[in-house]
């Protein structure tokens, strides 16, 4: 029972509650029996007190691995007797009336170890074939991953060869790029000319019809008319 030596700097109550098979109530009862305070630290205890506590736990409680082994035995007995609870354990469903749609996650997790149980029921050919198929699937997945890695490695090795081939045809690329730039410049010049022509047309029309220019003309005509009057 070396489980108490892991957390010497924490309280005795905390260490007892961390042990599998002991709860909060039982930890308080043990502390009150030995006269320990709940806040007292485990490293402050003497060796004799520690040994007494360990012996008491070993003699009066089933803890950790012993408790797990006992529960597993009970489950396997129920499966062999083919009771209702055993059938539910066998299928991996919750046993005591819990919901199957939104609950029963612990039972699904614990159901995995029962397929490795060597009894007459699980040594059936169906379960053997099921295990073999799972192993085959895992092997196939690993082989596919290896093939993908090999293909990637070969592709990376071939890459520099492709670059050398491209470098030989670099003068052809330059010619095509020059032709493309020339065409673009021509198109830009044509667009500029078209925009300038449209602007001139619209400006001439505006001089004839727009009220701003019409008012300027009227003002000039009035000035000329007033000058002629004054001369007379």
Q: Can you give a write-up of this model?
A:
The chain contains nine helices and no strands. With 232 residues, the chain is an all-alpha fold. The protein is elongated, with a radius of gyration of 46 Å.
Question: How are the secondary structure elements laid out?
Answer:
Elements (H helix, E strand, L loop, with lengths): L11 H7 L5 H11 L12 H14 L4 H17 L2 H8 L13 H6 L14 H44 L1 H40 L1 H21 L1
Helix pairs in contact: 1-2, 4-5, 8-9
Characteristics of this structure?
single chain, 232 residues, mainly alpha, 9 helices, 72% helix
Brief synopsis:
This protein is 72% helix and 0% strand. By secondary structure, the protein is mainly alpha-helical.
Average per-residue pLDDT, rounded, comes to: 80
Shape: elongated
Q: How many DSSP-defined strands?
A: 0
In percent, how helical is the residue content? over 70%
Distance between the termini: 134 Å
Quaternary state of the chains: single chain
- Beta fraction: under 5%
Unreliably modeled segments: none
- The assigned structural class equals mainly alpha
Order of helices and strands: HHHHHHHHH
Q: Nearest-angstrom radius of gyration? A: 46 Å
Largest β sheet strand count, sense and barrel closure: none
How many H/I helices?
Answer: 9
């Amino acid at each position: 029972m070396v489980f108490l030596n892991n957390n010497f700097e924490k309280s005795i109550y905390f260490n007892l509650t961390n042990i599998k098979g002991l709860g909060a109530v039982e930890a308080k009862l043990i502390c009150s029996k030995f006269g320990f305070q709940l806040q007292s630290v485990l490293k402050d205890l003497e060796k004799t007190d520690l040994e007494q506590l360990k012996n008491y736990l070993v003699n009066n409680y089933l803890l950790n691995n012993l408790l797990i082994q006992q529960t597993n035995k009970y489950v396997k007995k129920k499966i062999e007797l083919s009771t209702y609870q055993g059938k539910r354990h066998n299928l991996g469903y919750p046993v005591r009336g819990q919901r199957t749609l939104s609950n029963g996650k612990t039972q699904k997790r614990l159901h995995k170890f029962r397929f490795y149980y060597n009894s007459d029921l699980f040594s059936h050919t169906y379960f053997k074939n099921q295990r073999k198929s799972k192993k085959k699937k895992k092997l196939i997945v690993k082989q596919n991953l290896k093939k993908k890695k090999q293909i990637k490695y070969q592709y990376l090795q071939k890459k520099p060869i492709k670059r050398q081939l491209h470098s030989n045809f670099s003068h052809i690329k330059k010619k095509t790029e020059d032709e493309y730039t020339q065409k673009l410049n021509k198109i830009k010049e044509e667009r500029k000319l078209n925009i300038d022509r449209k602007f001139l047309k619209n400006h001439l029309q505006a001089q004839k019809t727009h009220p701003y220019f019409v008012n300027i003309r009227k003002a000039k005509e009035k000035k000329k008319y007033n000058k002629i009057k004054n001369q007379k």
